[in-house]
Structure formats: C-alpha cells, structure tokens
Amino acid sequence: MTVKAALRSQAVETPSWAYGNSGTRFKVFAQPGVPRTPQEKLDDAARVHEHTGVAPSVALHIPWDRVTGADGYAALAAYAKERGLRLGAINANVFQDDDYKLGSVTHPDPAVRRKALAHLMECVDIMDATGSRDLKLWFSDGTNYPGQDDVRERQDRLAEALAAVYERLGEGQRMLLEYKLFEPAFYHMDVPDWGTAYAHCLRLGDRAQVVVDTGHHAPGTNIEFIVAMLLREGKLGGFDFNSRFYADDDLMVGAADPFQLFRLMYEVVRGGGFGPDVAFMLDQCHNIEPKIPAIIRSVMNVQEATAKALLVDREALAAAQRDGDVLGANAVLMDAYNTDVRPLLAEVREEMGLDPDPVAAYRRSGWAERIVAERVGGTQAGWGA
Amino acid sequence: MTVKAALRSQAVETPSWAYGNSGTRFKVFAQPGVPRTPQEKLDDAARVHEHTGVAPSVALHIPWDRVTGADGYAALAAYAKERGLRLGAINANVFQDDDYKLGSVTHPDPAVRRKALAHLMECVDIMDATGSRDLKLWFSDGTNYPGQDDVRERQDRLAEALAAVYERLGEGQRMLLEYKLFEPAFYHMDVPDWGTAYAHCLRLGDRAQVVVDTGHHAPGTNIEFIVAMLLREGKLGGFDFNSRFYADDDLMVGAADPFQLFRLMYEVVRGGGFGPDVAFMLDQCHNIEPKIPAIIRSVMNVQEATAKALLVDREALAAAQRDGDVLGANAVLMDAYNTDVRPLLAEVREEMGLDPDPVAAYRRSGWAERIVAERVGGTQAGWGA
Amino acid sequence: MTVKAALRSQAVETPSWAYGNSGTRFKVFAQPGVPRTPQEKLDDAARVHEHTGVAPSVALHIPWDRVTGADGYAALAAYAKERGLRLGAINANVFQDDDYKLGSVTHPDPAVRRKALAHLMECVDIMDATGSRDLKLWFSDGTNYPGQDDVRERQDRLAEALAAVYERLGEGQRMLLEYKLFEPAFYHMDVPDWGTAYAHCLRLGDRAQVVVDTGHHAPGTNIEFIVAMLLREGKLGGFDFNSRFYADDDLMVGAADPFQLFRLMYEVVRGGGFGPDVAFMLDQCHNIEPKIPAIIRSVMNVQEATAKALLVDREALAAAQRDGDVLGANAVLMDAYNTDVRPLLAEVREEMGLDPDPVAAYRRSGWAERIVAERVGGTQAGWGA
Amino acid sequence: MTVKAALRSQAVETPSWAYGNSGTRFKVFAQPGVPRTPQEKLDDAARVHEHTGVAPSVALHIPWDRVTGADGYAALAAYAKERGLRLGAINANVFQDDDYKLGSVTHPDPAVRRKALAHLMECVDIMDATGSRDLKLWFSDGTNYPGQDDVRERQDRLAEALAAVYERLGEGQRMLLEYKLFEPAFYHMDVPDWGTAYAHCLRLGDRAQVVVDTGHHAPGTNIEFIVAMLLREGKLGGFDFNSRFYADDDLMVGAADPFQLFRLMYEVVRGGGFGPDVAFMLDQCHNIEPKIPAIIRSVMNVQEATAKALLVDREALAAAQRDGDVLGANAVLMDAYNTDVRPLLAEVREEMGLDPDPVAAYRRSGWAERIVAERVGGTQAGWGA
C-alpha cells in the first residue's frame, strides 16, 4: 500500500462528548451552538467527516447519549448513516451516579456492583442495536485514602464484573479496557496502568483488548513502548487520543508533543497496528476553543503524524540499527519527522475530492454561525457532572 | 515557649468552602447536611474549633460567601464572633464568570481585566468590613495551547493589576499571592511557581507575601526548601495545606505524605515562621469523606506534625550537622518524627479543657445527625462550577 | 503467628555491593575501611546480622564478587556460613563490558547477545555452587535515541535469552526479573515497568518472578498497588529496597517516604507475601554516609515498617471498609502507622539476645575503627564503572 | 534583520567536556579517538565550527581543562584563535575533590568552603587570562537525607561565597548561576530552581545572571515560561542546552522534544534574548554516540529551532492573540513549527561558504578516522569521576 493509499484508508473516530461542553472542576465554560441532543452531535460530527474524509464514525457515551424508545438506538444509527457516518464504540459510564461515590464494579457494596454491571450489560444491548463492535470500559474506581478499601479485593470484584460482561459479548464484539493513573481517585485507581489492564484482558480472552489513552500515564512514561508491547502481545485494541503537558489535560492530540505522537504512530505502523483491528479514537476536551474546528485540527494532527510515520525509510532504518549506528538510525527517523507533510496531505485530500484545507473549508461553510443561530434554548450537552 | 505552650498557641484557619460540596470534573457527590449559607458554614467551623481548640478563624471565598446588605459582612463577622470564631483571609475568585475563559487580570481584553480588578478591589472592601488581614489571590489565569497568548505581556498585565490592588490595601492588610503549576490551565499558568510569585511580591513591597499551597508543585519538588527560602527572604505569608499523591489532589493534609508535612513544619519552626505572621490555612476538598470530621482530622494532622517538629532536639541536630555526621543528624530528625505524639496532644487538649479525642467527641456530639435532619431543602454550598 | 514471632522470623538480605564504594556519575567518594574482597564484604555483613539478627544472607554481584578456583564459590559459601551467613541471590551484570554499549541480551549483534547469555549461564553455575535460590536479572538494556534500535525486535531477543536461562535453572532455583523506568538508557528501557516483566515471566513459567525495586518507577506510581497485583497473580518474587525523592536515588530504604514503605509492607502482609517466597533484599548506595551503620539503619527501617504493618487491626479495618467508612478505615491504618514501634522492636531484639539498639551496639563494637586501621592498601570494592 | 541574517549571526558555544568521554554511574564507555588534552578538544571543536559556521567558541571546565605554566591559558587562547575559535565560559568544578563530599561553598566546615572559594577565584583568574566573559557556576551542593545539614544556613554560606566571587569579577565579566533540581544530591540541592538562582543574582547585581540548563527541571516544568520570566526581569544569562526524556539525561539538544526547543527559542526571540547577552551553550553527554557528529547535529538542531522561531508570523500571532482566537493563534505558531527549515538552513550555509550538509561534510573529511589513528596512548579526557 502506498503512503497515499494508507492515508486515504485511515479512520479516526470522534467522540460524541467532544462536541458538547466540558471543563475543569473550576468551571465549565459553555459555548454557543453546542449540541443539545445525540442527533445534533452527529450533525457536527458529519461536518468533521465531510471536511477531513477520515472521521467516519462516532463514539457514544451512555448515558450522555441515551435515547429512548424501542428502536431508539437503531434509529440513531440510521440517523448517522444518512449523514455518512456510523456509530462507533459504546462508552460505559459508571461514575456519575451518587451510588458510585466509592466505586462501581469494585464498590464494597454488592448492590452497587450489581447496578454497575447492569449498566455495562445495557451497553452491550446498545451495541447490538447500533452494530457497534467495541465496548469501551473506563472505570473511575479507586480510593482517595490509604486503607479506604481493600486494594486486592477490589481486583477480585473487578475481575468478576469483567468476566460477566465478556461472557455477554456477542459475535464480533470486543471489550476495550482502559487504564488511568489517577483522577478522579487520588490514592489508587483500580486499573492504573497497562500491566493491570493487560493482566485482566489476558485472563478474559482474545476479545478483551487494552485501550491506550495517551493522557493516562505517569510523567516520563514511554507510551510508544507500551504500544509496541501490546502489539507484540496481540492486545492493543485502540487509542483514546489527546495530549497533555501535565496530567490528563485532554488537549487536542498532537498539540503538546507532536514528536511523541509521531513516535507512537511509528510503532503502530511498525507493529502492524495500522488497520481496522486497532481503533483510533479521539477523547478530548475543548474547554476553551471552539469544538468542531478543534476536532478537525485534531484529526489533521493524527494524519500528519501518520504520514510522517509512513514516510520513515524502514530499510535505511533497519540497516543503521543493524550496524549499531546510533546517530544514523536516529537521523533516518528524524528525517521523516522533519518533513513537512502538509502538502502531501493536501494532495491526498484533493484526490479524495476534499478541500485541501479542512479548517478553512469549515470556516467558509457557515456551519459555525448556523448552529449558534439555530441551537437556541434547550440544554446543552455536557458531562453532566 | 515550651512545646505544649506552642501547641496551645497554634492557629489553623479552616476554609469555608471545605464545608461545602466539592468534587472532580467527573462528578461532585453531594453530601447530606452540607451548609447552604455562609452562616451554616460558620456553624460547622465552630464545631471544628470547639473540638480542636486551634481553629479559631475561617477563610471566606468571594463570591461563594457573598452576603448582601449594607452591613452584610459586618453582620457575618459578628455571627462568627458569637460562635467563638473570627473571619480570616478573603479569597478572591476571578475564574468562574464566563468572561474569564481566557483569563482574568491577564486577559487580552482590557474590559475583562477591569472587571477582574474591580472584583479584587471589592475583596479589599470586604476585608475592611470583616477586619480580615489577608487577601489571598490565586489566579487560574494561563493558556492551554502554545501561542494562545503572549506569555510575557500577560506578566505585564498581572503586574499592573497586582500593583493597583497593593496600592488599595489598608493599614495592617496584606496580599498573599499563590502559585500553581497547572490546572485549570494546561499549557502555562501565569503564576506557576514560587519564583514568579516571589518576583512579583518583591516589586510590590513588604505587604505582598507568597502563599504556599502544598499541592501546587511539580512532582519531586522539595517544598520545605521553598519554605526555608521564603522565610529567609521574609516573603512567606502563609500556607494552603492539603496533600496529594499525584497533582492538586486536595486530600486531607498529612494524609499522603506525613513525613513531608513534618519536614515542612520543621523548616517553619527552624526559620522562625511559627507565629502569627505566617497564616496556616487549610485548602482541601472532601469529595468522598464527611467534611467536618475530615477537617478535624486535618487540623489534628497539622498539630501532630507541628508537635514532632517542635520535639526535634535542635542542639543535638546542630552538633551532628556541624560534625558532618550524616546518619547522626538524620537520626535526630527521625527520632522526633518516629515519636508518637498523640498522647502529648491529648494532654494539651485536656489542659485546654477539651476532649482528648476530637473526632470521638464530634461523633458523640450529634452534630452530624442534626445537620442532616435540619438542613433540608435549599441549595447546598459548593464551588458553583 | 504473633507480631513478635513474625518480626523474629523476618529476613532481610543485604547486598555485597552496598558495603563497597558507590557514587554518582559526578564523583565516587571513597570511604576508609571499605572491603577489598568478597570475603571482607561478608565480614561486614556479618556485623549487620550480628546486631540486627534479621540479615542472615548476602546477595552477590557477578563479576564484582567473582572468585576464582575450582571451589571458589563453595569456599565463599563456607566462609559465609562460618560467620553465620548464607549467600543469597546471584545478581548478573551485563552492563559493564565495552561490548554492552548498545545492549546485552537485546543487542543488535548476535555475538554480543551470546556473550551476555553466557554470563547469565555462568551465574546459574555459580548458584549451583553457592546453593543460591534466586538469579536476579536486571538489564540496563535500552536506547538513548528514538529510532536507535527496533524496540520490538529487542523484546524478541530478550524473550529468547530469558527462555534459555529459564531452561537452564535447576531444581529449586528461580529467576527474578527486575524492571526499571530509566537510567542508564534514556529513551527506552527494554524492561521499563512491571507489566513488561510480568508479561515475560508469565510466558516463562512459575519459577520466573518479578522483583520490585522501589526506586525504579515513574513519579506518582503507586508501588504498593503493584505489590498487591503481583501477589494476586502469584508473580511477586521479591524486593530491592531503597528509597528516593526523585529518581533511582538509592537512598536508605524508608528514608524518603516511610509512610510509603509502611503501605507497601501492609500489602505484603495482607497479600500473604510475608514469608520465604518473597525475597526482601536491600539495593542501595551509601554515597556519603558510612556503609555498615547505614545498612543497619536500613534493616531497622524495614523492621519498623513491618511491625507497623503487622499491627494494623485487620478486623477493624475490614469492618470500616465494608461500611464504606472512608475516614474510619483510613484511621485504622494510620493508628498503626502512628504507633512508635521502636520499644516493641527493642523488646524483640532483647528476646533474641541482641542489644536493643543495633546502631549503638555497632558503634561500641570498634569494628568501624578496626576496618579503617586494617584495610590499608589494595583496591577498594566498588562498581567498577 | 532578516531571518537568514539572524541565522548567520547565531553563535552556539560547545563544551570542551562533550568531546571527552562521559557516561552514567553504571559505565563510561570509552570511544576511540577521544581527545587527551585541552588542545585536542579544541581541534575537535574547530571541526564543528568549520562545518557549521556557528560554533565559534568553546567552554572550558576547570580542572578538566587545566593547563600549567605562567602563560598556559593565554597560550590555550592563542591555540584556539589559530583554529578560528575563542575560549568561552569558564566552568568551575567544586564537586570532584574528596573534600566536597558534603558540599563545597555550602559545606559545614569553613575550611572546605575556603578551598572551594579559592577555586572559584582561580577561575576568575583564568577568565582574565583567556578573555572569557562568563563564569559559569553550578554547584552540586546539597544533602541526601533530611536533617543532614541546615538548609537555611547553607543558603547563607552560599550567599557569602557568591558575594565574594561577584566582588572579584573584572570589567565586562559576568557570573552565570545555574540551578538543578537533583543529582548528585538526592534530598535537596542548594540551588534547585530558577527562583533560588534569581533571588541570589538579584542581590548580587546586574552582572549576576541565571543560566538555564534545559535538563535541570522537575517533570512538567514549562521551561519557556522561565525563559520569558528571566528575560522580563533582565536576568537570563544563558543556556546549557541538552535534552531529556526523564531526568538530567543530557541527550543531544532537540532530540527528546523538538517542539519544546522551538517554543523556548520562540520566547528567546520574542523576549529580545537573541543576541550576545544570552549565551547559547551546549552541555551534553554523548555516552554512546560518536561525539563530534553528535555535537554537529546538536548545533543543527538549535539552528532549526531558531529558524522556526524566527519564521513565526508575529503580526498574525499578535492579531489572533488580541482576538482571543485560541485555535488561530496556536495555528500561527504551529505553521512555523511544521515548516521544514532544512532547505533554508542549507541555503544559509551555502551563502556562508559551507557545505549544506555539515554531517556529511564531516563524514567525508576523514577526521573521524584520523583521530582514531593518531590519538593512541595517553589518557582520554573524561569527567574524572
């Protein structure tokens, strides 16, 4: 496959919640024109796909995207399809009910665990209705104080819940287990690192895979190494892309450390992860910048990192590595990174019938003004925290 | 002054907002019985002081504690006094209006800067009414993306606002400038570290002092060194105590690293900072634990660290240091740290006419049940984010 | 088993290299009286055991402790036995030959890999001779620059070497695989985290176990969580104890964060890891402090943390955890931590026929003066870097 | 000044010690052809300048570059001049004598402090002889254990020594004070952060300036913010460039995070720091890669970051910032960063009469082979740790 063909084939899933409001514990700044319904989120996502050509699916977050009625989700899927989209991963949410103050599937109280499990099962039901392949599980479960709960028993409870959900998965469905170092729990998280997620997925089976959120690591963690390891073990299910300078800042992917994103994409390409088995998803917060152009920019940043990764001269690299030529091997990698791939991507877009400059095209489209004018009243979508 | 006398003389200011609800961007878990008014916060604070004897003042946060009427704040001060309390530092809040999305006193738009400055001036007005000595300034100002704004111009704007406020301070009033590494801004904060706060305070004059929030540093920062430096420079105005395992977790002070708290208190004692010129304030979030007993525990943790710091055999320490006896000097410090000071503090409390076990006394008092029963309806206090 | 019985049964292995000189890349400060031979290291270790009663074994480091002759290691073992010691883990060293500049078992050149493997095999030969149970493997392997070598191929090479060594292990022998985030490699380490070590050990089999060096993690890592996970998975082989404020500082265990050490020991006790299957080893550098008393102090620090962990009221803790009593559960843990266990340990020592104060006893023994006087000339032991 | 003119005017000082061997505490890998004398270091530095055109000066490190004889340093300066170079900053070394185990200018023993001060004075003598402008002071001073020494008294001792040296400075000479978070001291460093260096320099006077080593910060520190602050305060004396993934890794500048280097250079340009008053120096270790081409590459990396910083459309940026256009302002910055400036720099080099590809030119020159062949015997230069 040529570089251009690969770039044309790329698919970046955008998250429904990134079109809604988000913020920090200090303040959520509402933005005019923000969607009020799952359908309006899809309308916005359709603009991202229209201008980039590589954002064909949208991840849902339950209950933020809950629809009602017997055929609610099927109807939502049809709504997406009409706009050239499909529904992607279903993201469970077991962190926003008052019951979950001390955990969900790891809560000391079995009644709360049952409630959380029921929600996870509901998410699989929704997958059946939407045709989604991936169930994305991120647990905010953890403790704030040493001694607060038994760290090990919580693992047992977690394992029990995961096994029940895994059992429930249908044909062609997968479970993606996410890890996170901290926040909202501040002493320990029940799934804090890739090792924990990996250990659980390994016991569950092939359809349990680890998802890497690029903002969920300790300072200094070499994320591309984790990518290489998980690919080697056949356990990389996908990414939640974003970027960070400090913690889980959830900035636009590629904004904080574009070189890291490139290295990560290089390991994806090198490890055979560039294809449908690894889901490339965004998971970001656009706290202060307008959401749709920020998501377009994010998709473009992923494309640019991918293009550079694809441009690495693998033969020259392998030769230099074989020779122990430290500077030479590094130079091969840097040559690709230092290339300005924006003209190449402009060409790819034009060959796909798109405007070479998606941001400018979006600006010209009038969509931003239109949603501000039309989306008046109602309740803007947000995290509901 | 004997150790016991010093412990009796200690004063830890509790923050009004710690009695209200708080949480993370993921969820604020409401707790039953939480205050709905500044007066109810003072009622709760009075219980903390009643049981510990060393929490005589309460910091206010404007607008969260805004009261109306010509004599509103004077009346609130009187309300506090009736309960054996006084009003402490006034905390300005220029981060929760929609106008402040891109900053307050450093905002590119002069109109927003004027609005923010007006709020700071209002806070000094309130100090006049409450008799508060300290204006505590923490700015959430910063940027999320490189290039978003001009880092240096923002310093100029900050300096201008600080100078105007400093000028407005009355007799016996001080400005305490707080710094924070990150959150809610994720690329740069306008006052990210003690060096920045120090540089501004130095230009302003003697009544501008730096306040150290123990959760606002980069991983690995030696906070007690900063304490020693600021005391040496005559620029330590106070503390916002809390503790953290990761970032600005705002856990109970002493919960995450009691040894660090001890070292910090040792530098305070050693540097002559144990007295009224350095304000010892809590600034914590009790996201999942009941608030009043958590604050009592926090006050006790500060007392225990202080007691240990006071117990350090300074002469033996100096001798070992002079001799270059690394292990011996360290052992002197550790001897104090390893001492169980709870019996000593129980004695101190009994001598003050208090129950030796404040947490148990609070439990027995029935206050927790009473506020749950009585504080029904209304809007619980919280950050209002 | 009572707390006292448990404390009497504890065994902390001291590392031969901690008796020799060590330092940083900036300077190794030589100390008078430092051993020049493996035998002299054992002489010093015997003093630690004599005064503490719980340091009965000594880890060797090959080639730093290489002895020659057909029966060299058997003779060394006999030498140890005469002094009341036994030889413990064999630590392989594949990082100090010029050949290892770009790696050892992961080096791109198969000849270097063969050489490294041969050394590992030699270490198992030594184990046969010394009767050691554990082969401790720490690899400095990694890269300094992105692209320098193929991260994934290096995993394959690593797996191949580990499999060969595992195959070679005799009856009752184990392989302990250590991980480390960084240093001496500064872009990636081939075994950077517990997940990687775990994944390799899992494939190898039951006798491959992970060893946790407490200084080898990213900032913010919850080490006791890793302990709990590895115990749950049956994969915790042992510890390399030390402490750190920043990176792999290799300070005396318990010196930087005694509360962390306590939490870690609590998870060990709670997870059934307090026994012979988990090796408790020190791995420290005494760059500026005298080595023998520093090691005595380190052993005592482990004892104190263990004592506190054993004193946790497990029933009260479980009850509070079951009730979701955050503050109550934390208080149970803190009660144990805040206890001054030095009197209890003094009693234990007296019951073992030891001086209650090992440091003072060592000081009085005259050993320090004796080795300074006697160990004149020759080459002091050190890392040989 | 045009971008090209600015690039032609740039000067990057290379450090004599980077031409010698270096390593970690685990191993120093010697490289063939490494210089044995200060003169040979200058020979190598001349090659870097010959191929890059922008590395005209070489920093010395005393005692590593000590020469003897009445006119030793004048002769060395003449030697440099003959090769188109000049001698740059004099770097004092008060960390490698056995006396300095517990500190140099902050040592508890006044005799050691006097010795250290005498060395600093000697360095100013050397500056007089070499014509160097800058005295670079980095102190390894600090402690490894809490309580080991009195943190505050050490500040007093430091201040006293700095004042004495400052007093001694001649016309046109400056003192550059460097800070470092940790290593080799692991509990506290006496000058750990820019705030401390700034506070001391402020008291000393205009000719005391802070030097920023890019590897000396806590994780997450925004270094370009510090640059902006120091420029605003008139206190930025220079840089020690290198890069790091973890701690003070001392990798080639720009190798770990080229985007950070660009942001830093942007603040330099924006703050008026691009000129002779700010010294741009490298301070790196080439532990595994050949030294001369690594230094050439490093110089080129600085050039590329500088070129991108110069290409930022300042007017467009200011307009977007003024409008609060977060995405637009960020895009202006990223446009410059994403530009491939290698063709521009190739042009600049050709206009300077240089080969457009300095690395290739060096490779072709035969110098690498020649020094391997000729520099046989003797003692290779290194840190002498």
TrEMBL record, chains A, B, C, D:
Keywords for the protein's UniProt record, in alphabetical order: Isomerase, Manganese, Metal-binding
Q: Which residues form the Xylose isomerase-like TIM barrel domain?
A: 70-244
Q: Which domain of life is it from?
A: Bacteria
Pfam families in UniProt: AP_endonuc_2
Gene Ontology molecular-function annotations:
isomerase activity
What NCBIfam families does this protein map onto?
A: RhaI_grampos (TIGR02635)
| Name of the protein described by the UniProt record | L-rhamnose isomerase
User: What is the species listed in this Swiss-Prot or TrEMBL entry?
Assistant: Streptomyces synnematoformans
